[in-house]
UniProtKB/TrEMBL annotation:
Residues 20-143 form the Orc1-like AAA ATPase domain. It comes from the Bacteria. This is Orc1-like AAA ATPase domain-containing protein. Gene3D superfamilies: P-loop containing nucleotide triphosphate hydrolases. Pfam families: AAA_16. InterPro entries: AAA_16, P-loop_NTPase.
């Protein structure tokens, strides 16, 4: 039962803060649950970023102010959160002396003793990640309630999954599910922040899909950007001041920042680096990130990275960018930092292949992770899977492609003979499915067979093109063959994800130096041999961005003198070689040695 103080102070539903747009019903449900003796425990749950913590914290502050009910906040999720770390954080909340080894019983006893003296509101955030059994936490909650306290759990897991088989316990819960805002609610939120341009509003809603935390981050960035003078010398790197594609990395995560350095090709902010790299894969963990961007950067920014508004968290320390944003960020990174993006791709493919070869990754999982890295040309990823989730189902001799709601959108005739898979009569039944998606889904089963034979006329357009990319061999009778007799499935995958190869210039160092000289003279041309090389592996218009990114990001020497000599001489034009040697306090011999080494390393990076 609630205390008289609570009943008198909270008999009327308090007005929710104006920032809680779209959560009035949830606010009322919280008040109803607290004002009734029927549901002594509350569980607020929903997807990451739906505003659960924000809602409960505001309600707890209202309780404390109007009903004199203080709250004790159990710590939320942190990366690598151990049992001792959680107990120490709880001890700090309760003003306990932090012994070297705290126990759960010590914290439990302190909570109950404190509640007997003055009932309080205990809030356990991110209960999914608390390193103790949810059953144990529920028992402590029930004991607190018997002492006159209040308890609210916050999590992303459904109560049935969190407390399986605990029907009686779940019957004691008042559950409040928070979902993404409707488009109308999202519009109200943007209007509240004076963002009313129709095209911009539509773009923001499309990207955020009504996810409140993400929408708030975007809105914050837009509001600050609108009131900020962007440095004129940097506007060349922004296609449009209000283009979300252009300022996602900078303005969402550093609202109002004037740096714009990440997109200008200058040294990277560590958290921006992790955000950009995370756009490569659907899910990443700390081990993956360390292999891709390096241990020092991960160590510096991991905690800030896992608390980003764009990030969904999963069990086991895995994280993924909010799906609606992943492609936006990936597109921006590939356009502005193409050389860096390619290096991350190579390290990521090497990591996944090593997991496959060591047995830590199943073949079908390896295909799903690596298919998006197949790139016959730089920037062209025919099997990158985004958008709607599709399901594969095999019935008799037909393999069907279905949407999540069970609608069949494609099918292929299937026959298995002597360990070989025969595929024929592939059909797209709905325009929502394309050939890349169909081939990608069917290919997940290739590892089960010694050979795959697919019927498709060489003139059948995109299907034939995709089979050729997967290294099928065309036969005379309209069949395409792929066998694993000479090379293994893992070797085939390794060949598929290898970077595209072009004809490297005969003297790449001289070509690189000529490009630098053109850059120094303000000449937009590169070099005929460089143009020929690039045309064979990528779109010709992207070479200049590739070259500049390599100059900025490649390791051109352990000592600063290597890259410095190139930048000062060719880009900044700070003086002659002799003058720069004096400026850098090195001998002419050392200067020219560093200069030559930097040119060689840059040539290797550009024509890799």
């Amino acid at each position: 039962m609630q205390s008289p103080a609570f009943q008198s102070s909270m008999a009327l539903i308090p007005e929710p803060p104006q920032t809680l747009i779209g959560r009035q019903e949830s606010w009322t449900s919280l008040h109803t649950a607290f004002n009734s003796g029927s549901y002594p425990m509350i569980y607020v749950w929903g997807a990451p970023g739906t505003g659960k913590t924000y809602l409960v914290r505001h309600f707890a502050q209202t309780l404390e102010k109007q009903a004199n009910i203080p709250f004790v906040w159990a710590p939320g999720r942190k990366a690598d959160f151990s049992a001792q770390a959680w107990l120490r954080a709880m001890a700090h909340e309760l003003d306990l002396t932090e012994d070297s080894e705290l126990t759960f019983d010590q914290v439990r006893s302190t909570l109950l003793t404190r509640c007997r003296t003055h009932p309080f509101h205990w809030i356990v955030d991110h209960i999914d990640d608390v390193p103790f059994a949810s059953q144990d936490l529920a028992e402590v909650a029930q004991a607190l309630i018997r002492q006159g306290g209040f308890v609210t759990f916050i999590g992303r897991t459904s109560p049935v999954q969190l407390w399986p088989g605990q029907n009686y316990l779940r019957s004691q819960l008042s559950t409040i599910l928070l979902e993404d805002w409707s488009f109308d609610q999202a519009r109200d939120f943007l209007s509240h922040h004076q963002i009313n341009d129709e095209a911009l509003v539509d773009h923001v809603i499309q990207i955020t899909q009504g996810r409140p935390q993400l929408l708030a981050a975007v809105c914050d960035g837009l509001t600050h950007l609108d009131a900020t003078q962007v440095p004129a010398e940097h506007t060349v790197f922004m296609a449009h001041a209000m283009d979300l594609n252009g300022f996602l990395i900078e303005q969402i995560f550093h609202p109002g920042s004037l740096r714009l350095t990440w997109r200008a090709g200058q040294p990277l902010d560590a958290r921006d680096t992790l955000i950009a790299a995370a756009s490569i894969a659907p899910m990443v963990n700390r081990e993956w990130m360390t292999r891709v961007v390096g241990r020092a950067t991960v160590h510096q920014a991991w905690e800030r990275f896992v608390s980003c508004a764009t990030l969904n968290s999963y069990r086991g320390g895995y994280y993924g960018l909010f799906p609606a944003l992943r492609e936006q960020i990936a597109g921006a990174v590939q356009k502005i930092r193409p050389w860096t993006w390619e290096q991350w791709l190579r390290r990521s493919t090497h990591y996944y292949l090593s997991l496959l070869q060591s047995g830590r990754l199943e073949p079908d999982q390896a295909w799903r992770l690596l298919a998006g890295f197949i790139r016959p040309r730089l920037g062209y990823h025919p099997f990158r899977s985004e958008g709607q989730s599709l399901i594969v189902r095999q019935t008799d001799h037909i393999l069907e492609i279905l949407t999540e709601n069970g609608k069949i959108v494609g099918q292929v005739q299937v026959n298995v003979q002597d360990g070989s898979l025969f595929l024929s009569d592939a059909q797209l039944l709905e325009t929502s499915l394309n050939w890349s998606q169909l081939v990608n889904l069917v290919a997940q089963q290739f590892h089960l067979y010694s050979a795959i034979h697919w019927e498709a006329a060489p003139s059948s357009g995109e299907l034939a093109h995709l089979l050729k990319l997967l290294q099928f061999t065309p036969q005379d009778d309209q069949w395409w063959d792929l066998t694993f007799a000479i090379r293994t499935y893992a070797q085939w995958l390794q060949d598929l994800v290898a970077p595209p190869q072009g004809l490297i210039p005969g003297d790449p160092v001289s070509v690189t130096q000529a490009i630098l000289q053109n850059l120094s003279a303000g000449n937009e041309e590169s070099h005929p041999q460089a143009d020929a090389y690039w045309a064979s592996i990528a779109d010709s218009s992207t070479f200049r961005a590739w070259f500049r990114d390599a100059l900025n990001s490649a390791n051109l020497g352990e000592r600063v003198d290597g890259k410095t000599t190139l930048v000062l001489y060719y880009v900044d034009r700070r003086g002659t070689h002799e003058e720069l040697a004096e400026l850098l306090h090195v001998s002419r011999a050392t200067y020219f040695r560093n200069h030559r080494q930097a040119l060689e390393r840059l040539a290797e990076a550009v024509f890799c």
